[in-house]
Amino acid sequence: MIQAHAPGFSLDQLQVLVNVVDHGSFSAAARKMGRTQPAISQTVHALEAQLGYALFDRGAYRPALTPRGQAFVPHARRLLGEAEALRSAARAIAQDRHTLTLSLDHSAPLERVAAAIARLNGKHAGLELSCNIEPLDRVAEQVMCGAAEVGMLSHFAVMPDGLNRAAVGHSRIVLLAGADHPLAALPLVTMADLRAHVQLVLTATDGHIASRGFGLVGGRVWKLGSLSVLRALLRGNTGFAIMPEHHFAEQLARGELIAPANDVLAGRQDAESSSFLVWRADVPPSPIAHAFLESMNITIDPA
Predict the structure, then answer these.
(1) What is the Cα–Cα distance from 66 to 178, expressed in whole angstroms?
(2) For 155, which DSSP code?
(3) pTM of the model
């Protein structure tokens, strides 16, 4: 029986645990980390002994997380993310660099973000930038686990209690189709019309849908992990999309895409996509993150 002890686990033990989960077996984790399988098993056993409960049910062909293991792993991931952020900050300080880590939702007003970064770069010659584009809830997850210090997402996303947020603008949500798509010929597009066509939506690599505010209304749904691919399919008259207008301003101006009149979005309170900057409430922003927020005209209470 595993006896409970005061937790004194190491980051290495947590990394081993996460590798076993991510790669599906002790042997695969051993290959990934360049260690022997007995060493990986011993590390996990030691961690379980320190925690006082089993993390894996070893009765199956492959190790499966116990309910307690499932509850523990997200915390392990978060701590590992914070540790990596700390290591990066330490390296940046040693090399007199300023590293800004951002996670942006697909709907983020990128031009405004780019302008703020340009102003920041003018003031901090050693600025280094790491920026990921993620769908909806993934942004909040990135910020909460420390993989990104500042995020920008839309009001359609779930906002965890542990995040501060500040509004930074909004964009109109529109129905979009190619100029030669059948929807373009209709005087007024209805929900029934949309059900006859393919709807293009943005997703994460695991299929997590990023266009959640209006649901899935097309007869068929194609899940795409790239905004560029979505644009190309729209221009090719393959399907329709319901997206923030600002991402498609150039294509609309050139007539490659149209925003058909419709009764799907009319009168809806959520027919605007508001954008928010988010950062963790329990960790003060780093000096460079603070400077970025100020460059976005966000004032942070010193308290």
Answers:
(1) 49
(2) T
(3) 0.55
